[in-house]
Amino acid sequence: MRLGSTKVNDIVKAAGLKLVDREEHPGIYNPEEGLVFSSAIPFTMTMDITIEDKFTVTIPSHELVGPLRGLNREGKFAVAQEYTEIGIFRSDPLEDSAVLGKIFLSQVSLQNHVSPKILTDSRFTYTWTGTEI
Q: What pTM does this model have?
Protein backbone atom coordinates (compact mmCIF):
# COMPACT_ATOMS: atom_id res chain seq x y z
CA MET A 1 0.00 0.00 0.00
CA ARG A 2 1.24 3.52 -0.74
CA LEU A 3 -0.27 6.58 0.91
CA GLY A 4 2.07 9.52 0.40
CA SER A 5 4.67 10.98 2.74
CA THR A 6 2.30 13.32 4.60
CA LYS A 7 -0.05 10.48 5.56
CA VAL A 8 2.88 8.19 6.39
CA ASN A 9 4.44 10.84 8.65
CA ASP A 10 1.08 11.31 10.39
CA ILE A 11 0.83 7.55 11.02
CA VAL A 12 4.39 7.36 12.38
CA LYS A 13 3.76 10.32 14.70
CA ALA A 14 0.35 9.05 15.91
CA ALA A 15 1.80 5.60 16.68
CA GLY A 16 4.88 7.02 18.38
CA LEU A 17 7.23 5.05 16.13
CA LYS A 18 10.92 5.57 15.54
CA LEU A 19 11.55 4.15 12.08
CA VAL A 20 14.68 2.14 11.39
CA ASP A 21 16.73 3.07 8.32
CA ARG A 22 17.73 0.42 5.81
CA GLU A 23 21.37 0.73 6.90
CA GLU A 24 20.40 -0.42 10.41
CA HIS A 25 18.94 -3.77 9.35
CA PRO A 26 20.79 -6.95 10.27
CA GLY A 27 21.75 -7.85 6.71
CA ILE A 28 18.16 -7.97 5.37
CA TYR A 29 17.44 -6.56 1.92
CA ASN A 30 13.89 -5.71 0.85
CA PRO A 31 13.58 -3.75 -2.43
CA GLU A 32 10.18 -2.26 -1.51
CA GLU A 33 10.42 -1.85 2.19
CA GLY A 34 7.54 -0.76 4.39
CA LEU A 35 7.73 1.18 7.63
CA VAL A 36 10.24 -0.69 9.80
CA PHE A 37 10.64 -0.22 13.56
CA SER A 38 11.79 -2.17 16.61
CA SER A 39 9.56 -5.09 17.59
CA ALA A 40 9.85 -3.85 21.17
CA ILE A 41 7.31 -1.13 20.25
CA PRO A 42 3.74 -2.49 20.15
CA PHE A 43 1.60 -1.49 17.17
CA THR A 44 -2.13 -1.81 17.77
CA MET A 45 -3.62 0.76 15.40
CA THR A 46 -6.48 -0.25 13.14
CA MET A 47 -6.88 1.49 9.78
CA ASP A 48 -10.28 2.46 8.38
CA ILE A 49 -10.32 3.51 4.72
CA THR A 50 -13.46 5.28 3.51
CA ILE A 51 -13.91 5.83 -0.22
CA GLU A 52 -16.15 8.66 -1.40
CA ASP A 53 -18.04 8.67 1.93
CA LYS A 54 -19.81 5.48 0.80
CA PHE A 55 -17.62 2.47 1.37
CA THR A 56 -15.51 1.76 4.46
CA VAL A 57 -12.97 -1.00 4.91
CA THR A 58 -11.37 -1.75 8.28
CA ILE A 59 -7.88 -3.26 8.31
CA PRO A 60 -6.91 -4.64 11.73
CA SER A 61 -3.37 -4.12 13.02
CA HIS A 62 -2.51 -7.81 12.74
CA GLU A 63 -3.06 -7.56 8.96
CA LEU A 64 -0.93 -4.41 8.65
CA VAL A 65 2.20 -5.62 10.45
CA GLY A 66 4.59 -8.54 10.44
CA PRO A 67 8.24 -9.30 11.04
CA LEU A 68 10.76 -7.76 8.66
CA ARG A 69 11.29 -10.14 5.75
CA GLY A 70 13.68 -10.01 2.84
CA LEU A 71 16.86 -11.50 1.47
CA ASN A 72 20.06 -12.08 3.40
CA ARG A 73 23.56 -11.49 2.01
CA GLU A 74 23.52 -14.92 0.37
CA GLY A 75 20.28 -14.07 -1.45
CA LYS A 76 18.14 -16.43 0.64
CA PHE A 77 14.86 -15.63 2.34
CA ALA A 78 15.37 -14.27 5.86
CA VAL A 79 13.22 -12.97 8.72
CA ALA A 80 14.39 -10.50 11.36
CA GLN A 81 12.03 -10.97 14.33
CA GLU A 82 13.58 -8.01 16.17
CA TYR A 83 12.01 -5.65 13.61
CA THR A 84 8.37 -5.11 12.68
CA GLU A 85 7.27 -3.87 9.26
CA ILE A 86 4.00 -2.07 8.49
CA GLY A 87 2.83 -2.92 4.97
CA ILE A 88 2.87 0.71 3.81
CA PHE A 89 5.74 1.60 1.49
CA ARG A 90 7.97 4.53 2.33
CA SER A 91 8.08 5.86 -1.25
CA ASP A 92 5.41 8.25 -2.51
CA PRO A 93 2.78 7.08 -5.00
CA LEU A 94 2.46 8.72 -8.40
CA GLU A 95 0.06 11.56 -9.17
CA ASP A 96 -1.17 12.15 -5.59
CA SER A 97 -2.87 8.78 -5.62
CA ALA A 98 -3.25 6.11 -2.98
CA VAL A 99 -2.34 2.59 -4.02
CA LEU A 100 -4.33 -0.05 -2.17
CA GLY A 101 -2.81 -3.50 -2.47
CA LYS A 102 -3.20 -6.99 -1.08
CA ILE A 103 -3.68 -5.89 2.54
CA PHE A 104 -6.72 -3.86 1.51
CA LEU A 105 -8.02 -6.41 -0.99
CA SER A 106 -7.69 -9.28 1.48
CA GLN A 107 -10.23 -7.50 3.70
CA VAL A 108 -12.89 -6.90 1.10
CA SER A 109 -14.10 -7.69 -2.39
CA LEU A 110 -14.97 -4.35 -4.02
CA GLN A 111 -17.80 -5.78 -6.19
CA ASN A 112 -18.51 -2.67 -8.26
CA HIS A 113 -18.53 -0.29 -5.27
CA VAL A 114 -15.53 1.57 -6.70
CA SER A 115 -14.51 2.08 -10.30
CA PRO A 116 -11.11 0.51 -11.10
CA LYS A 117 -9.38 3.82 -11.86
CA ILE A 118 -6.71 5.43 -9.69
CA LEU A 119 -8.20 7.05 -6.61
CA THR A 120 -6.75 10.35 -5.49
CA ASP A 121 -6.16 11.17 -1.83
CA SER A 122 -9.05 13.63 -1.92
CA ARG A 123 -11.46 10.68 -2.31
CA PHE A 124 -10.15 8.89 0.79
CA THR A 125 -10.28 9.44 4.49
CA TYR A 126 -7.97 7.45 6.74
CA THR A 127 -8.88 6.83 10.34
CA TRP A 128 -6.52 5.25 12.85
CA THR A 129 -8.06 4.11 16.15
CA GLY A 130 -10.61 6.90 16.10
CA THR A 131 -8.26 9.70 15.05
CA GLU A 132 -8.72 11.01 11.53
CA ILE A 133 -5.42 11.59 9.78
A: 0.73
Structural domain for 60, as ranges: 5-132
Q: Which residues pair with 66 in a beta bridge?
A: 85
Centroid of chain to Cα 55: 19
Report the domain count for the chain: 1
Q: What is the rounded CA–CA span in Å between residue 8 and residue 88?
A: 8
Rounded Cα distance between 129 and 110, Å, is 23
Rounded-to-integer distance, Cα 16 and Cα 62, Å: 18
10-residue stretch averages of pLDDT, the chain, 133 residues long: 82 88 81 89 84 79 89 92 88 70 63 45 55 47
Exposed, middle or buried: residue 86 (CB in 10 Å: 0-12, 13-18, 19+)? buried
The alpha-helical segments, DSSP class H, found in 16-77 are 61-64
